[in-house]
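Recall the central idea of this unit: under ordinary conditions, the amino acid sequence of a chain determines the structure it adopts. In this exercise we apply that idea directly, starting from the sequence alone.
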Amino acid sequence: IVSIVNMHKSFTKNPNRCILNLRQIEGDGGNRMIELGYTKRNLLTSLCEGSDEPLIKAAMEDAVGRAWVAEMDEPKFCVIKVGNFIYLIGLPPKGRKALDLRSILLRECNNAYIVPENDHWKHWLEDNLNCNYRMVSRYTVKREKNSCDQSALKEWIEAIGAEYKLRKLDRTAFKKIAANEWSSDFTCNCDEEEFFLNGTGYVVYLDKEIVSGCSVYGFSEGKVEVTIATKLGHKRKGLAIAAAARYMLDCAREDRYPLWDTGSVHSIELAEKLGFVADGEYQVFQIAVDDDF
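Accordingly, the structure predicted from this sequence is:
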């Protein structure tokens, strides 16, 4: 997961362009979908059991993120939101339930990446969003097990400038990065206690300021989804790759399998330097919430 998304965009203009606001959403019929607490996630087992998506598994196993259904008795579809990703799973709804789902998407998307499970959901989104949206390409990279070149990783760690200090992400750092927009992805999926129970990461300091880092975005069954970010003004200095290299060493020692998902071709190049290889491209939806589109 990388915070840069600017590659291979295609824009879909609806003649009834809508810039979303609360009044519009409330006028859409309200929200009748049911948000599931952590103890009710077992209702989604039959819908999600075939998914290999780490963030969906994380939502099911570790009770991170949020989830909605249209009914409690054998739901036919669900919405799962983990960080900046929204997953649509099951059978696309019709009628009143379609309106309720649309209301959830307009209220909760906030520039999130809406991931359709299949072509049925892709067509549903195209037919039902009824507002301005764009399609964005994202890329997955993978790392073969037992392919960790530890000497190469250590070289990246040692290459950062002497003025920068690489440190493990501790509770003091957690509070600092949670307050910064550029690094909010590091901590957006769980609270502090949950993070330190299952997650970890590394940050780069310049004096007392955190300017870059690598952290866990999601975790399940020995797999970890990795996210990196660097504050503007400190990019292209090898900081993020140093933090990521240090975390890769931890993954090798703890037998964790790291995964990476990015919207930037540049980040694929960075991942390849860490031993990852390109695994595929997929399309996600983003709804316009301001005039940036």
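The chain has ten helices and 13 strands.
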